[in-house]
Design brief:
- It contains 13 helices and no strands.
- By secondary structure, the protein is an all-alpha fold.
- It has a domain of about 70 residues.
- Helix 12 packs antiparallel against helix 13.
- The chain is globular, with a radius of gyration of 25 Å.
- About 30% of the residues are buried.
């Protein structure tokens, strides 16, 4: 007869049957949560002391690697508000790009926890930047343009790491469209124009080759903006950005579809004008 392996629970049961007090069965310890440290972290990130800010950022990186980083919505907002002002206090232009990159790279940690966690943090990041944008003075704008550019680049890098899986593409692009590329008026105009250009540059820099359908998914938010925007200067910026797409046949098809759906005469006219420019340029090749 096969002998059952001895486990702590079986051993405790046998001792109880003999009238002896069993030793307590060790319980599996839950991983501590990042949320418990957020008050300490956010306070340290906005300290007047550069050394304390840097130490707290390192502490945050350490805790992200060792704790349960699934946060509630309010906790995510608290974290990104702290990181927003951590960038705000960056003192030198030399440190600007490095600081922006370090903060943007935190997104990879959240994607490492789960896709849903990463997408939630992208959403809260753009929500925070859009809400705080009006408070940024002209001397600090470059900091947040740099941070936004790194977050967009990291979003496409994450898509590439996931081999351009359809769910990843749709999830990430959906968050960008609901956030900084949205046409509902919640995104500051200057930020949206800048991010649209960076978005197309990041798409063109991708090392992986997305399918035509995936490229269409990626370019759809830009086409929707072109169709819906009320700013003439933005129409011009979007036209130029879309005209830089190498796949002329695909972008021409998307622009014609966009023009057919445009309700505003000015937008429809500009869309068809860029279509004509692309067609003329193709005939000259």
């Amino acid at each position: 007869m096969r002998k059952e392996p001895t486990t702590p629970r079986r051993q405790s049961r046998r001792l109880a049957e003999k009238g002896m007090t069993p030793a307590p069965v060790p319980q599996k310890q839950e991983k501590e949560k990042l949320g418990r440290y957020l008050p300490l972290i956010t306070k340290g990130l906005v300290s007047n002391s550069r050394e304390e800010r840097e130490n707290m950022f390192s502490f945050l990186q350490e805790k992200i690697g060792r704790t349960d980083i699934a946060l509630a919505e309010l906790e995510r907002e608290q974290l990104w508000k702290g990181l927003f002002y951590f960038v705000w206090i960056t003192e030198t232009k030399e440190a600007l790009q490095e600081t922006a990159k370090r903060v943007a790279d935190i997104l990879f940690c959240f994607f490492g926890h789960s896709e849903q966690c990463g997408l939630a943090h992208i959403g809260v990041f753009w929500k925070t930047v859009c809400q705080e944008w009006s408070r940024i003075d002209k001397h600090r704008l470059d900091k947040y343009y740099a941070l936004s550019a790194h977050v967009i680049q990291n979003t496409f890098e994450h898509i590439g790491r996931q081999s351009w899986e359809d769910d990843t593409v749709e999830g990430c692009i959906g968050e960008l469209q609901r956030g900084v590329l949205g046409e509902d008026g919640g995104t500051p105009y200057g930020l949206r124009v800048f991010c649209t250009k960076e978005y197309i540059r990041a798409l063109l820099r991708t090392e992986e080759t997305p399918t035509e359908e995936q490229r269409r998914v990626c370019l759809l938010p830009v086409c929707v903006l072109l169709r819906e925007t009320t700013f003439e200067s933005e129409i011009e910026e979007l036209r130029e950005a879309l005209a830089s797409i190498p796949d002329r046949k695909m972008i021409l098809s998307m622009l014609k579809e966009t023009g057919a759906l445009a309700q505003k005469e000015a937008n429809r006219r500009e869309i068809y004008r860029v279509c004509q420019e692309i067609e003329r340029a193709d005939k000259q090749l």
